[in-house]
Amino acid sequence: MNPATQSRLKIASSDPPERYSRRLLRYVVTEHELLPGSRVLEIGCGTGQLTRHLDRLSLEVTAYEQDALSLKSAIQTLPDVEFHHWKDDAQRLGEDGKFDLVIVHGSELLTGDLFEDATLRWTAHMAGYLRAGGSLMFLVRHDPVQLQNPVGHLPSCYTRLFSRFPGSTTKIMVPDALSDQRTWNWVLGRRPRAGKIAVSLHLPKQAISRFEWHQWIANETARPQVPCCLWARRQAAVDVQIRRAA
User: Fold this and answer.
1) Domain Methyltransferase: where (predicted)?
2) What is the pTM of this model?
């Protein structure tokens, strides 16, 4: 793991425990047409807070987590759920075409330019686990310091990424609760409102094989690429400086 990635993960590990509002849970279930027995692949499940809600709805969840302590806590809390250690973005996570929904909480590849070849290939790799008509959902925090100088991707970055793939895209922004300190920073006019963004890619009803995904991504990555946003361009420059100093 390079120094830039270690720095990002250290920042992420200091975030407060995640909470999931009814509005967000309603989006996860209804927008993706989940029913009892639907198969869900959850990447970066943490201590299993969202996993717990999905399990209570009788969904068949397969969850992966990178942090050993969080994974241990999730296993102890939800012994009937299938948990695995998430090693890296190249890891095989199950059978192709098996899942109705793939949820990604975080990935090293989502902390840089979303239009890089590696990110496009990984997104297609995740989509390969979906059945025909299934959905891929990125669930990320949106915590801008200033609208003119965002810290992190804009919501439009994720929708533009998914717009390059077959299917349709939906999204929802769920602000933090009023009890959250970050919300009061917004109330007092100190910074824009923070919350969670859920962006979903809904695949066509026709099945897409892993081979067809490889063909599609080869054509897509052959196109000229530009950074998805100004923040990504700045972040890439910071990463270069960190690597040179290491």
Assistant:
1) 40-134
2) 0.80
